[in-house]
Amino acid sequence: MNRRIFCVGAASFAALGTAACGDGGGSGGFGVSAGTTGATTAQNATATSSTSTAGSTGTESTGTTGTTETTATTSSESVAQARKFVHPGLLHTDADFERMRTKVAAGAQPWLSGWNALTASSRAQLGRAPVPLATVTRGGDGENHRTMVEDMERAYQFALRWKVSGNAAYADLAVQYLDAWSSTMITLTGNADRFLAAGIYGYQWANAAEMMRSYAGWSAEGVARFQKLLLEVFYPLCHSFLLNHNGANITNYWANWDLCNICGILAIGVFCDRTDHYDEAIAYYKTGRGNGAAAHNVYMLHPGYLGQWQESGRDQGHATLGMALTGLLCEMAWSQGEDLYGYWNNRFLAGAEYVAKSNLQDGNGQYYSPPFSTYVNRQGTFTVVSTGGQPNLRPAWESIYNHYVNRKGLAAPWVAAIAAQIRPERSEWGGDQPSFGTLTYSRDAAAAGSPPSGLTAHVTAGQVLMSWWGSAGATSYKVKRGSSASGPFATVASVTDPRTYTDTPGNGIWYYVVTAVSGSGESSVSNVARAALPTELRVRLALDAASGTTATDARGNAQHGTLQGGASWGPGRSSGGALALDGSSGHLALPTGVLAGLGDFTIALWVYWNAAATNARVFDFGSSDIAYLALLPRDSGGSMRFTVTGTTWYGEQNIVASALPTGRWVHLAVTLSGTTSTLYVDGVAAGSNNAIALAPWQLGDTTQNWLGRSQYAADPYFNGRMQDLRIYSGALSAADIAALAA
Fold first, then answer.
1. Residue ranges of the alpha helices (H) in 381-436?
2. Which has fewest Cβ within 10 Å: 105, 196, 238, 607?
3. What is the pLDDT of residues 182-192, one digit of tens each?
4. Distance between CA 150 and CA 731 in Å, rounded?
């Protein structure tokens, strides 16, 4: 199948043999797995074969059989440390343990109910010896990982009981378990599920060990031996998976595969004092190509910051597993001073609100139906929130609720509702997360009266669409508009939930703020958001210089372009110069975030194509070959094509027209208004699509923004010249486009 054939239907995906990885029933899960045996490179988009059985829980298994990778590891002593870690500093810190002890001793709720849940757990009782194994297998023949899961959970629960009660009998038994496994285990194997085991159990083993590292009864040799086990058996598998995804197309694996391995690497990094591993995990969450990275696990933001989760079309068991893993990842990073919770305007909270709402019922007992944008990847096409496994009440929500609501003072109504349903969090048999979050994460409420935050205003279908993060305790919000960033602001609407509003203020430049209303009165204002109607020229590069390596932004917004590779200046349309690209390495690089914040938009420029080449690019704005917005002068089907995607070529949303002619200057323009996008050639509409759901702002601050170069390394460079690049906020009219092309 050729990735540039723009129209691929669900039937086509079925013919490819899509994987719907999962098996079994029940509400718990061991992780996820969808194995493939085919190998692909980062740029090879040919689908690989895969087999699996469909299910609706948080369990997955199928894949290739393998043994622990023999990736070389370096001892922590030989790695230069740029950061001094906080210890204990994973899911729980000394301050957390002090809070737990104080609250339990005082009989305060909900901590006491959380403590009682722990002490009632069958795996938190004294008297059972560890059962270590030399070889642990998850997936395929000889599967025996449940033995390790039980011992891992016991080690964590013993350590937690010791930290809160001070009873050394639990500490001694926790050490016995850690020492027994580090003295015995040498191999982690199985089919593709071995990668799940490495991540899910690696991060939990590291957490149990991190709690015990300060115990005088655990020898230095025991600590070092357990570090060796994690570094030599667990870490190589986690690292290998994020590096090559088991040799499969990167979209074959769902978000939780990446997330469990990110958790494993980060936790191992902290416990083993390996800043290189810790930094690897942080970097992947922020900029990785896989579905677990923040830019891809929340596929789309709907109004009011409902963030469509990557697995929500699949089933709720796996969607809630993503909540558990990401929440714990964020908490571990928070302990080290890294705010992944707040990354990209609380991107994770948007996903958590979406998944929580998907598993809650209204007053009539009907499940809520959050908005859903069609999602297409290697696994297939998904058009609705899955009802599979609904509701899934995984004990995953206390860390999320207590951070955003009680630490930060934000409103998270859907997360709050599902956390209350599950409280107190109890032991979870499956082994995906350590549970007992009511004890470990509960906090006193944040001070009331904080203002809303994260306000954005996007021009969409010629209107101003706003979303913001609400304030804990607020009953409503006032939306205010002004003609100056400093005000004055007049109230234009009162909003309850969802926290979104669409304004039609008329032509002009407008500024917005939001305040929260609660029993204590009205808060101060949020941040200021700006919008211009109907259009505003954001970037203009004349591309008419005669020398130098800079294409200056005439709008004064410092969005200058830089000539790269074989780019130079050549003759322009009538007089002056033009950007000349050699078809080999020449391209123009534009700044990070050049399209940031754009809803409705127009991109227009003049091009002269010397010689046709399939899959070259006029422009390509993205951060990798996963998510991009591009214009191909001729694709493999022989058409010119505008495309935007958040899931590689599988999910491309397209407009097609006749291929770009060669040997003459042609004016090209693309507009988007709401979900309707139009491609213009020489001032005349040549193609349109009214189902383009991904506006540029959904792609975030793209980092690889190019004229003449593709996100796919194997694609040819553009061979020709370009002039007068213009980027507008807002969709120009057909008459405006015709005037530009005159």
1. 398-401, 413-422
2. 105
3. 999 999 999 99
4. 59
